[in-house]
Write the structure tokens for this entry.
Amino acid sequence: MTYPDYAEFGEILAEHIIATPAEVHGLLSGLLAGGLPVDDQSWHVHLNDLFNDGYALPVALQRKIEKLVVVSEQLYRDNQFAFYPWVPSDNDPLDERSEALAQWVQNFLVGFALVCQELSKAPDDIQELINDFNQIAQLSLEFDSEDEVNEQAFFEVLEYVRVGAMACFNHYALRPSNPASKTLH
């Protein structure tokens, strides 16, 4: 239950669309966190609209993205809190990772908003998370150097985003669709 290789997936995407793995994963993660069931194929429409001018992606790429959806949903549901935003690895430059995280958050918000359109009715903690995500998406996460302080700052933002995305998923995707009636018969 892991994501594919980031660089390889990026090369495959580049052959067909102008989007990074972080952007695609952010969108899909936002859709899932907003409550879109993993077997709901409407993510195709959203992905096509946002990244391919409404045109369908090649079948081979669709299958790879479908696997990404399944893995993401499994990681969200994992009891060990295994879900994480898919950004370049720790071996990549900090600027690349921070830019990818900002892209991930921007697209998470888009996906989440497409599914969860009544945010004003969300609990206060979810509304606060989304507001924080809006601020993170607008921040310039460029770092002057790759030192331990900047690595730690990046990790803290990444961890906040990871936990926030899981909180949204737990609230919207794991809630019972038909709460039990409180009427006694």
The CA atoms of residues 83 and 127 lie 21 Å apart. Residues 178-185 have pLDDT under 50 and may be disordered. Helices lie at 6-14, 21-33, 43-51, 59-77, 94-115, 124-138, 148-172. Residues 148-172 form the longest helix (25 residues).
